[in-house]
Amino acid sequence: MTAAKLAKRASAIILDKLGDDVMVLDLRGRSPLADYFVIATATSTIHAQAIAEELEYELKSEGERVHHIEGMENGVWVLLDYFNVVVHIFCGETRQFFGLERLWGDAPCQTFTQTHGKN
Question: Is residue 18 part of a domain?
Fold first, then answer.
């Protein structure tokens, strides 16, 4: 799967697990870290962990294996590294504090929000 498709698929999985304010930042040519960041908000640490577990499970079943996971223990900021795509799942206040959107403010982005069953 291409990095762009992986980022879009991760976004859809997050929305299916009721994650909110999903944003895909296109970092190609801007960062050596990854081609895309997927950033999302969870309602609680347990919710963040559940989203991360679902992402890992669904993407693995589609042939995409996560390289590295950070933050599952506390769930405040869970990071899943798929090499060219890095998924960040935050609890609300933590997302605001770290402000990845501000840090990469010049990157093109696509935003998705929960439509409460109307995906």
Answer: yes
How many separate domains does the chain show? Answer: 1
pLDDT tens, residue by residue, 92-119 = 889 889 888 877 677 767 777 665 444 3
> Which pTM does this prediction carry?
0.88
Domain containing residue 62: CATH number: 3.30.460.10
- Residue 57 is inside which H or E element, if any? helix 45-61
Does residue 118 form part of some domain?
A: no
Report how far residue 91's alpha carbon sits from residue 62's, in angstroms, rounded to the nearest whole number. Answer: 27
Domain with 17 in it:
3-112
Contact 15, 117 (CB under 8 A): no
- 47-82 burial, b at 16+ Cβ within 10 Å, e below that, comes to bbbbbbeebbebbeeeebebeeeebbeebbbbbbeb
